[in-house]
Amino acid sequence: MTVSVGEYRKWVSKYLKEPEKRRLANDALDAFERLEKTQNISAEEIRPIVAAAKCRFRQVWDIAADLLTLLSNKHSSAQDAMREMLQSKKVGERFQVIAALNSRVPKSLALELIRKALKDTGNRVREKAAERADDLKFLQLLPELEQALSVEKHPNAKSALEFNISMLRDGYLVEDHKKYITVTVRMRRGTSSQIISQEDIDRGRVPSIIADMRAPDWS
Fold first, then answer.
1. Which of 161, 147, 157, 84 has its CA nearest to residue 121?
2. How far is CA 163 from CA 133, 134, 147, 169, 186, in A?
3. Is residue 84 part of a domain?
4. What's phi and psi for 182, nearest 5 deg?
5. 121: which of 4, 11, 43, 218 lies 20 to 30 Å off by Cα?
6. Are residues 39 and 125 both part of a single domain?
7. Cβ neighbours around 73 below 10 Å, total
8. How does pLDDT run across 32-56, given as a tens digit for each residue?
9. How far apart are CA 187 and CA 210, in angstroms?
10. Domain annotation covers residue 218
11. Checking phi first, is residue 190 left (phi over 0); if not, alpha (psi -120 to 50) or beta?
12. Which residues pair with 184 in a beta bridge?
């Protein structure tokens, strides 16, 4: 869990002023507290968490998604709820369940959802699927990511695929922005970018530049 239930409650009390947002978040937290040590959880019992995870307000669904992914580690009802969200007619709900994926979600489920999301009709869902494949270091998805890139038409989704494929496969990306060239490198947390020259590329300096960029982060 990213933060404790108690910390979430304090945040909700302080920042969620709208009654409906506060109710959804607190209902999800109440349900989680009832269920976190339960052996078997039904779809009905996790309904408040799922309702909050479907909420269009980021402050609410972020909390609920954290709770849902934690429960998904052990409970099939939470896994099924995530599958159902990806089948929603609402692109926001489909986006939110992919955005929620993290290392606590069973690998087989995360792979299943990302594979489906790469073919989603919503470009934001496809973009987030590429990002999560990279974040979770799913190298086995590289062929499917490359296939998705070969047919992608939306410029934002195409850019996301190109970036995350390079990060996943190589750990860096060199981009020519016409007026300048950058190299973006994966770090321990996130990425870092630096302007380089054509001469750096021609003289084979890129690997040493990458090593220098990573040195402070990895030392």
1. 157
2. 12, 9, 14, 10, 11
3. yes
4. -125, 155
5. 43
6. no
7. 13
8. 999 988 999 999 999 999 999 999 9
9. 10
10. yes
11. left
12. 173, 193
Question: Which value, in Å, is the radius of gyration of the alpha carbons in the chain?
Answer: 20
Cα–Cα distance, 109 to 116 (Å, whole number): 11
Residues 33 and 127 in one domain: no
Supply the range of the domain harboring residue 163: 118-169
Summarize pLDDT for 161-191 with one digit per residue, the tens: 999 999 999 999 999 998 999 999 999 888 9
**Is 110 inside a domain boundary?**
no
Residue-wise pLDDT tens digits, 86-107? 999 999 999 999 999 999 999 9
Domain count, the chain: 3
Please check whether residue 190 is in contact with residue 183, taking contact to mean a CB–CB distance below 8 angstroms. no
Q: Specify the 3-state DSSP secondary structure of 174.
A: strand
Return the percent helix, strand and coil in the chain, to nearest 5: 65, 10, 30
Rounded (10°) CA dihedral 59, 60, 64, 65: -50
Residues 96 and 12 placed together within one structural domain of the fold = yes
Residue 217 belongs to a domain: yes
Contact between residue 196 and residue 181 where contact means Cβ atoms under 8 Å apart:
yes
C-alpha 49/C-alpha 111 separation (Å) is: 22
